[in-house]
Amino acid sequence: MNLQIAKSIAIALKYQVKVEDIENLLEKPKHVDLGDCSLPCFKLAKKLGKSPQIIASDIQKNLTCDLIQSIEIVGGYVNLFLNQHIITQQILSNIMKEQKLYGASPLNKGNVVFDFSSPNIAKPFSMGHLRSTVIGNALANIAEKNGYKAIRINHLGDWGTQFGKLIVAYRHWGNQQTIKATPIKELLKIYVKFHEEAEKDSTLIEQARAAFKSLEDKDDEALKLWQWFRDVSLEEFMTLYQLLGIEFDAYDGEAFYNDKMQNVVNELQAKGLLTLSEGAYVVELEEMPPCIITKTDGATLYATRDLAAAFYRIQQYHPEKIFYIVGHEQTLHFKQLFNVVEKMGYEWAKDLSHVAFGMILKEGKKMSTRKGKVVLLNDVLTEAIETAKQNIQMKNPNLQNKEQVAKQVGVGAVIFNDLKNYRLHDIDFSIEQMLHFEGETGPYIQYTYARIFSILDKADVQLEEMTYQPLGVQAWPVILLLEQFPRVITDAYEQTDPSLVAKYALQLARAFNKYYANNKILSNDDLQSSRLTLCHCVAIMLEESLALLGISAPKNM
């Protein structure tokens, strides 16, 4: 709609201003009495050599557009009042025709890679990993809606000196059966015991170094243990991913790049980019600390591994972009990484993007229990599902599929609580608040969707019977929000910000509920069919918004 209006304004200005420049200037007025859409003419004054007021007056005189009912000039603003009849018909018919494809790009724009989640093997999946996991998944979904093929990669923390410690701990205190029963809990237990015992017996550290060296040297027994630790941990992670409804295309962790790092080091050497500094080979960078590539003993570091991963992904997937969804404390690491790729002479350095995010807080503090133990995501999800079950039991005890709906509501509440916030902000965690059926919560949107589904179910109307008559001023804010959906999807991808979709879903649910409170949907009059069409379109957009965020929309609650 904005594009069509911008084209008409460009014609009114005799194409002295580009259509896209006009479209970028169009804004929503703060008050409804100032119109549905507004063009501030101040930025056009210099280009056209006229005052904003004269430009606004010229537009008013020359503008012809079916979508515009009337025009008012206020100072240097052109305030546009839209033709509700035409736009209602246009938007509702488009959504009914395209259904869930409304707002989706028909183009195939190529591959984009998302590196996210990345838990450490043999360590619990904490709430700290939630943010990377749900932000990454939502951005991958949004990319697909924008016409890209999303490649989801879980860069597991499956290599490092901690595995030497774990191997030694297993040899001393491990029990195969108990580890098989609860892998991560038991592996963490023996890992913690290793550190406690090492304070009393320093030879354990030497044993761990030797064990990791044997792992690097591909010793058969060490490799088998490492592989087992990895397999049982991943198996446990998979139950969590299944609960969250998240799938990956690859689980290539740090170990996958062991045989790919030397090529990177060789290329850096050949290009004269390595410098010896304080016992390590580094790449000197402008306006930031040098990037450490290897120690003098040949041991490689995170940067080397991430460089090898970047090269592999470029060769394997030929992506338009690679997104790294990692906490903001890693900002310097990624700046260094991207700078090194640029220094190596690769243009695709500009296609690497760090999507940073803030922390999860509980009562204003970083989440941990009194003894400093991490808060486990599985415990949080279990509690959220249980709380949702209790809410359902109180509000709707006869609901069918209670278990499934409780899971959808509980898990959805945890995901939405994260994604409704701009990703760089720290977020507060409270299960009680996130499960409210009112306010800025996932259950509020799910409940609105279920309410609409109940109305449509009662009406028992076929899609082909639905009509598109204008429904008056109370429905107009809902119509305008439906029209915005494609733009929200584009902005969410371009700004790598899933909160735009979450906030949109909240706005739409609120606007619909306000309309519903003041209008009887099923009243057997001439407009009932159009009201049901509006309901159906809102339901599609709410379900699709939730799906993009990785949240299910139950039809009954």
Index terms:
557 residues, alpha/beta, four-stranded parallel sheet, three-stranded antiparallel sheet, 13 strands
How is the secondary structure organized here?
Elements: H1 2-12, H2 19-25, E1 37-40, H3 42-48, H4 52-62, E2 68-74, E3 77-82, H5 84-98, E4 111-115, H6 128-145, E5 149-153, H7 162-173, H8 176-181, H9 183-198, H10 203-216, H11 220-244, H12 261-270, E6 274-277, E7 280-283, E8 291-295, H13 302-317, E9 321-325, H14 331-343, E10 352-355, E11 360-362, E12 365-366, H15 377-395, H16 402-419, E13 427-428, H17 431-434, H18 442-459, H19 476-494, H20 499-518, H21 528-549
Parallel strand pairs: 4-5, 4-9, 9-10, 11-13
Antiparallel strand pairs: 1-3, 2-3, 6-7, 7-8, 11-12
Structure, explained:
With 557 residues, the protein is α/β, with parallel strands linked by helices. It is built from 21 helices and 13 strands. The strands form four sheets. The chain has a four-stranded parallel beta sheet with strand order 5-4-9-10, sandwiched between helices. A three-stranded antiparallel beta sheet has the order 1-3-2. A hairpin with a 2-residue loop joins strand 2 (68-74) and strand 3 (77-82). Helix 6 (128-145) crosses helix 19. It starts with a helix and ends in an 8-residue tail after the last helix. The model has no long low-confidence stretch (mean pLDDT 92).
Report Rg.
28 Å
Overall average pLDDT: 92
Sheet having the most strands: 4 strands, parallel
State the end-to-end CA separation: 35 Å
Compose a concise summary of this entry.
The protein has about 550 residues and is an alpha/beta fold.
